[in-house]
Amino acid sequence: MINIDAFLTLFKNVRPGGTGKWMACCPAHNDGQHQGDQSLSIALTGDKILLKCFAGCATPKIVETLGLTMSDLFIGEKKKDKQPPAAEARKKKKIAAIYTYHDVNNKAVFEVVRYEPKSFSQRRPDGQGGYINNLNGIERVIYRLPLITAAIQRGEVIYHVEGERDAGNLVKLGLEATTSPQGAGNWKPAMAEYYTGAGTVVIIPDKDPAGRAYAADVASNVFPRAKHIKIIELPGEGNKDASDWIAAGGTREKLEELVKFAPEYRPPAGPPEEIDYDVIRGLLKKESDGQYTIINGKFNKIIHTREGETVELPLCNFVARVTEDILKDNGAARERFLRVQGRINGSHLAHVTVPDLHFDNMNWVRKAWGVKAQTEKSIDKVERHLAQCIIKSSGKVPEHTIYTHTGWRDIDGQMVYLSGSGATGRPEMEVELPPRLARYKLPQPDGDAKEAVSNSMDLLSIADMRVTLPTFIMPWLAVLNVFEDMAFTVWYVGRSGSLKSVMTALALSFFGNFTHKSLPVNWFGTRTELEKLSFHAKDILFAIDDYAPPANPAEARELTRTVEYILRAYGNRQGKVRANPDMTSQETYFPRGLLVTSGEQLPPPGVSRSARILPVPISIDDFYQDGKDNYYLLTQAQKDRRYYPVAMAHFIRWIQANWKAVDDKLHKYYERYSLEANKKDVHLRLIETICLMQAGFEIFLDFAADHGAIKSADIGGHLQMSWEIFNGLLKYQSTRITSERPGERFIEVIKSLLSSGKVIFRSRNEAGYWKPEEAGPGQAIIGWDDIDAYNNDGEGIGIIYLNPEEAFSVVFKHCMSIGEFYGHTKEATWDDMNSLNYLEDTGEEGSRSVLKKKMIGNIRKRLLWLKRNVIYDTNEF
User: Fold this and answer.
1) What is the pTM of this model?
2) How many whole angstroms separate alpha carbon 713 and alpha carbon 724?
3) What is the mean pLDDT of residues 360-384?
4) What domains are defined for the chain?
């Protein structure tokens, strides 16, 4: 003999299939061993366990495989020769508690009696002051029904537990709790009606297989009737149920905290429906006008010969039908998929999802179902006929849409925000994200918004605000991307151990459960992978971690190209245009969110690329204050990150309710800060970046004030502080960009090569002739130094006539030798030197070149006329 809980532990992938019923993988044959592959039905009927394998395995074979005997399927106690009557047995037990169940009119309808040692019985009033010890003919109701009905009307959370004692202990905590009578295996679906109109129902099962199955039964029946359902298992190794957890120190506050961050319940896909051959055969015959049929579980083509005979030609050795028509929508294009169910030799074939584009060629059959599923060659174009059979056997196929990206979408005239857990305000919507984006899951906007926002704002105080402010503001900005493209990248730069990845993870925690070990991807992902992930991560903060150029020069150059490609894509909101073999355009993937990344260094110089980056220098010293470390604040922030998605969910709902106002405010704030910004000697892209960040921060402060997390009077102080910090970051990056200008970098390298003796200039002798200097080993002559040259006004200024080809060659080679790619053309370098006012004179009027002719000896050359003090710092200019 064995009890049902112990029996269920012998199987793999057990899932509930109804009250007292389960589905599991059959141990007597190869059953796939995955969810959705179960073919064994387990049912508890009275004191018997019934087994049925849909693949045809006999019950004795299944029992033998488990190492049991058939008698083990009887779970009742063996009858003894002399068993005392029930009444006499109860006399030996002590009544520990009596739990009375009432109907909707508050009339007592039956009682559950608990005894010590632990056992239970049920009884009903006999109308004469006594009891009848059974519930025959009595409608089952839930415990404390009148009180639960009133609590639902008040909008309170309802807790459903396994047992009256657990319910009573939760009531002592001030919560509304209930249960159903007669234990885990006796839930009646009709009892779900009592939950109609409930806001949130929290189910707390006992921590055993029967308890989990019970919770699944209750949830699946209550699901259509309650707005929100959550199932939670209480923590603690020794805590089997709610009473154990409370006895171990569990409180109402702790329980409500667990509920707040528990995921929403979603009903699982049911077991595969049986394929009724007669139904499908009739449907196929009708839809195909008698061209096809099913014989012995196989599709056949009906041929009428000239002689008047009818011949059935088998097309395959299985039958199949389409069970779902799925439209996957990535926000730019839609792709259709067909969900197919099959059956062969009486056994289920695994469900397979097939792209509609490839359905007709039937190549997916072998790939999905292996060699056991075969197509015949009895007729030409058998694949086309087989595809027709499957479609025409399917009848009316349900359609549904799966969204494959995050962020905002207009669906049925309503703006909703998508994440891996569905849509804010529409949890029933299905979202399927790439695996690397699977952690992006937002809760519904429940719970205390003020508490969540206040706790999230504590992130600002864990380190220097120069580091924490960008960390904090990025998530809110990403959600505002729908109103204005956040076309820039935030880059944490600092030595190893400076907590770059930790800060990145805290920023991402506003969208799900992230740690520094679970960031989506790093820079060593393929360019195509990074491109596609950036496309699916719409209106959200996406992270690419760990920029670390390898020592191998070729690999370092490839990484640089990848970084430049992605940064430009985010900055320009453009993707690579690709073509199919027939020259039609492929789908273009372009970034649709905000990017944060990190590295021990910034990418190689490049003015345009650098202007798309807002670097945030970070060091371990940023986490010290007044000589003391703030690590305890960082630890607290990591604990409090569970509040972050809740705050974000409320922010999204606030935007939904104030859509036009938020749009107008963001642009109004941005324009105001653009007028205030100091634009002198600053790249305009950087101005745009800090103004967007400041405007986004002000939008957040409006939201926080609306929810009571801050006072409206304090907004001005927050904005003054943030504007100073953003301008400091602007100044830091502007200085860096100036040093990266091609003209600046070129002159810097020339000076370095001169000081090391690797390049030299020819000079004039006392008679005014050019000295015939010769280049020594490892040297290059790159121009002529005329210290006595005069300008057009007759002033002696000195000019260096730079040989453009030689000079550019040595600069380019030197940069390569130190692992740096000088990514500018000659023309761009000369033009930048001219804009920096480094050239004394330029080409003839009307010429597009800045090179000017100069007679050197007997040869007229086109040279760069460089002011001598640019190289030798002899005068100001």
Assistant:
1) 0.63
2) 19
3) 91
4) 4-73 (no CATH), 86-260 (3.40.1360.10), 277-402 (no CATH), 406-433 (no CATH), 449-525+534-553+588-737 (no CATH), 741-872 (no CATH)
